[in-house]
Amino acid sequence: METKKKILVVDDEEALCDGLGFNLEAEGYQVDMAYSAEEALALNLAAYDLILLDIMMGEISGTQLARIMKSNPATASIPIIFCTAKDTEEDMISGLDLGADDYIMKPYSLKAVLARIRTVLRRTAASVALAKADSDLVSYKGLVLSAKNKTCTVDGTEVKMPKKEFEILLKLISNQGRVFTRADLLNEIWPDEVVVLDRVVDVNITRIRQKIGIYGKNIVTRSGYGYGFIE
Predict the structure, then answer these.
(1) Alpha carbons 146 and 135: distance in angstroms, whole number
(2) Helical spans, DSSP H, in the chain
(3) In what order do the strands lie in the sheet with 219-222?
(4) What is the DSSP string of 92-130?
(5) C-alpha dihedral over 190, 195, 199, 200, to 10 degrees?
(6) 52 SS3 class
(7) Are 138 and 147 a contacting pair, CB within 8 Å?
(8) Which pTM was predicted?
(9) Where does residue 212 rank: exposed (0-12), middle (13-18), buried (19+ CB within 10 A)?
(10) Alpha-carbon distance values, 139 to 91, 109, 115, 221 (Å)
(11) Which CB contacts under 8 angstroms, 24+ apart, belong to 132-139?
C-alpha cells in the first residue's frame, strides 16, 4: 500500500488553513496545520513531503521560514509552494529565487492548488527515483544530470544536449556556488583544441539556459569573471 504524502499547511488565516487542510485530507493526503511560522518551526519539518506556505504572517514571515528551511540540509530539499496575497511579479520572482517550487496567488481555486501540488510532488518523486537508480547523478531540484549515462533530465523530461553543452552544465552544477572563468571552462572542456575562442563558451551557455527551462536563471554571469550555477 502506498504511503500517504505528508503535507504541512502554514497560514495565519485559521479558517483558510483549516479549510485547505480538510480538502487536502479528502484528496488522500496526510495533513498538519500550523497557524504561524513559529508553530511550524516547532514541528519536525523534515518529516513532510511538501509545505504550503503563506508569506505575510507574524514575527517570522513565510519567506524567512523558507530561508531557514533552505539553509538546513535536513529540510533544504523539501518542496515549498507559496500561497499568498502578495501578487506582484516582483513578489513571485522573490519567492522563486528563495527556492520555492511554485507560487499561487490568493484568492485561489482548490482545483488549482491540487493541480500544483500533484505537479510538484510528481516532479520531486521523479528526481528522487532517478537519484536512487543512479549513484552518479548530480542534481538541483528537477534538473538531473547522469554522469554515467550522459543524460540531462528537466522535471522528468530528458533534454538532448551535445557533448560540450553537457560537460559545461555538469561542471557548473557539480560545483554550485563557484564561478568559473571562460579560461577555466575552455581548459577543462576543450583541453585538446588548438584554438577555441571565448565566445564559444558564451554560445554554449546561452543554449544550455534555453534548454533547461526555469533552471536557466540559476546559471549566472559574473561580469569580468565568468559563469556559475547559483541557487
Answers:
(1) 9
(2) 14-26, 37-41, 62-71, 89-97, 110-133, 163-174, 182-189, 198-211
(3) 179-181, 226-229, 219-222
(4) HHHHHHTT-SEEEESS--HHHHHHHHHHHHHHHHHHHHH
(5) -40
(6) strand
(7) yes
(8) 0.55
(9) buried
(10) 26, 32, 24, 20
(11) 138/170, 138/173, 138/174, 139/173
Does residue 5 come out as left (phi exceeding 0), alpha (psi in the -120 to 50 range) or beta?
A: beta
Q: pLDDT tens for residues 124-175?
A: 776 666 555 555 788 888 898 988 888 999 988 899 999 999 999 999 999 9
Report d(CA 220, CA 170) in Å as an integer.
Answer: 15
* pLDDT value at residue 212: 95
Cα–Cα distance for residue pair 144/39, rounded to 1 Å: 34
**Letter for the amino acid at 56?**
M
C-alpha to C-alpha distance for 70 and 193, rounded to whole angstroms: 41
Backbone angles phi, psi at 60, to 5 degrees: -105, 120
> What cell numbers appear for 63 in the block?
519567506
Q: Which cell is 96 given?
A: 522563486
C-alpha cell, 78: 523539501
Q: What is the Cα–Cα distance from 228 to 206, expressed in whole angstroms?
A: 13
